[in-house]
C-alpha cells in the first residue's frame, strides 16, 4: 500500500504549463478573502496556479471555478499549518467549491463544515483531487452536507490521498463517470465511506474505510442519464469497523444501507472484490443485492451480474446484522451470520474460504418477508478478471 495521507505544506511548481502561466497568490488574512479568492478563480487563465496562503479562511459564500487547466493549491491540510477553508458561517446551502472545467488539479487544502457538499465537480474531465481534507468537525450528523468529494458526469477522474469525515451521504462519491481511480484515501464516520454509482471502469484500491455506516458501495440506480454501471474493481482496501449508526436523511437511498456493512454491491455488472482486509463489520463484510425499490425506467436492469469475490481476508463479521430478521438469523446460527450475504438475485461467485448466506430472493419483486434463507457457498468458475484503469499520463504526473 502506498502512503495514504501525507499533508505537505510546501507548494511546488506545476510542470508543462504554458510559458505565460502565472501564480496568483491569495492570503487568508485579507479582510475580504472570500471575494479575493473568488476573483482569483475568475481571472485565472489556462496554466495558472491559484495559491492559497496558510491560515484559516473564514468563508461565507461558496466558490466556483470554470477555467480549464488551473491548479488550486494550498499550503497543506493540517490545522495550524495548512490552508483551511472554513465554511461554518456559510450563508447559502450550496457546495464549498464547484468545478465545471477540465484538467483541474485541486491539492493541499482543507474544506470544513459546508452546508452542502464539500467539493463538487461536474462535467470536469481529467480532474485530480489530491491531498485534500473535507470534514464536518462535529462528527456524524444528519444536517451535515451530503457529499465530501463529489465528481459527477466526468471522464478520467483521480482521487488520491484525501481524507473525508462526517458526510451524511457519501464521503467520497463518484457518479455517472468513466475511467475512475480512487486510491490511498481515508473515509471515516460517513454514511457511505466510498461510493461508485452508475460508473463505467473504476478502480478503488489501497483505501481505508472505517467507522462508516457502510464502507464501500458500488451501486447502479434507475432514472439517471448514465446507467448500466460495470467493470469496477475494489481491491487492497482496509474495510473495518463500519459501525456508525446510519445518519442519512430519510428518503436517501443510502439511508437503507444497514449499519455494519463492509462492501455492498447493488445492481452492478462485472464487479471484482479482491485482496481486501475485511473485519468487524456487524452486518456483513460483503453484501450482494438487487435493487428492490419501485422504479419507472424500462431500460433499468436491477440485478447484480457477474460479481466476483476472491482472495480477501475476512475477520469477525455478521454479529449484529442490521436488517429485518437479521438478529433472529444470527441467533439461529450461533450468534453471527456468515461474512458474505447475498440476496439471491443475479449472479455471483464467492471464492473466499468463508461462509455465504443466501436470502433466497432470486426475483427482485419477491417481498423480503417471504424469503427462505439458506446457506450457500456460491463457489464456481469465476468471471474473467477485469482490466485495470489507465489514466492519462498528464494526470499521473500531477501527483508525483
UniProtKB/TrEMBL annotation:
Q: Name one Pfam family in it.
A: Beta_helix
Which region is the signal sequence? Answer: 1-21
UniProt-listed InterPro entries:
Beta_helix, PbH1, Pectin_lyas_fold, Pectin_lyase_fold/virulence, SO_2930-like_dom
Q: Is Signal one of the keywords? A: yes
Q: Which residues form the Right handed beta helix domain?
A: 92-219
Q: Has the keyword Ribosomal protein been applied to this entry?
A: no
Lineage, top-rank taxon, reads Bacteria
Q: Where is this region: Disordered?
A: 361-400
What are the protein's UniProt keywords? Signal
Q: Which NCBIfam families match?
A: beta_helix_1
Q: What is this protein called?
A: Parallel beta-helix repeat-containing protein
Lineage per the UniProt record: Bacteria, Pseudomonadati, Pseudomonadota, Alphaproteobacteria, Sphingomonadales
